[in-house]
Amino acid sequence: MEADLLRLPAQWAGKRVLVVGDVTLDEYVYGRPTSISREAPVVVLEYSSREYLPGGACSPACTIQSLGGVAQMLGVVGEDPSAVALRECLQHYAVLTDALVIDPDRPTTTKTRICAQRSSSRLSVQQVARINVLDRSPLSPAVEDQVLAQLEEQLPLADAVLVSNYMLGMISQRVVDAIRWLGQKQGKLLTVDSQGDLSRFTGYDLVKCNQPDAEAALRRSLVDEEDYRLGLRQLASDLQARRVMITRGEDGSSALERDEAGDWQYHHFPVPTRSEVLDVTGAGDSVIAVLTLALVGGATFAQAGALANYGAGVVVRRWGNIPLTLTALTAALTAALNEEAS
Fold this sequence. Notes:
Elements: H1 2-7, E1 16-21, E2 23-36, E3 43-56, H2 58-66, E4 70-74, E5 76-77, H3 81-92, E6 101-102, E7 110-117, E8 125-133, H4 141-154, E9 160-165, H5 173-185, E10 189-194, E11 206-210, H6 211-218, H7 225-239, E12 243-247, E13 253-258, E14 264-269, H8 283-296, H9 301-315, H10 326-341
Parallel strand pairs: 1-4, 1-9, 2-7, 5-6, 9-10, 10-11, 11-12
Antiparallel strand pairs: 2-3, 7-8, 12-13, 13-14
Helix pairs in contact: 2-8, 4-5, 8-9, 9-10
């Protein structure tokens, strides 16, 4: 299987994906632990460095660009220093940023992670605390109108639209409906990765969620394979979706698709045996990015799911929300192929 998969990424070059969602600046502040504070029972860190990485919907956008595609980011930022830093992060990965909408009354969502680091190695990092700066309120009508105007301008240029919903107000019902209507009218592939609110995404080509959000939508627990088969079938029916996927953490992911004959096909993608989890941040983002590129590049759903699984296996072995690259994905596939041959 890996030999076939290795040939597929070459078809992603130049595929354009419009990523619509809640953009986030991920800030990492590193310090060396030196003592316990006399003011409270907390560790004292002496500052050593700071870095910014693209988070939220920016993560799949950067991964798409790093895998050979072309990513256009559509989201809302504030008029603040975090917005400047976020644009620089996106531009570092060559993501197109001209469709970002500025809302001066809203802060740029920023997640600051305070991290203790005993040495220069990433393996020595331990997150101590996280501070979120955000506004979960719905977009104002004026800002929402600007988003819809950008959507109408950018969607015709794209091969696919990826919706990344972090429940931070960007993905309103008007935006959801506009993407579906415009996308279906123009024959675009429409994919979704949503942290809740699944019922709003009816009529999309692919809906991905994690296990807790799937269980919340289904109002029951998912334990064994039969639970997942039935749960996926219910989600596909409720959402009128051709494909649905549930990521299952250390158990990989399960998916369901309706084939050309109208029959339902169940897939389970186990975690690659080489995966040693260091940091799960960005794993789900890499999955939806790879799925979208692979499908728009002509892969079958089974192939797309397998590629996404290998991609997630790479991401969880690294610290920080660092986008998956084509080189890293190819290396993982090649290693798996060599293991299979031996």
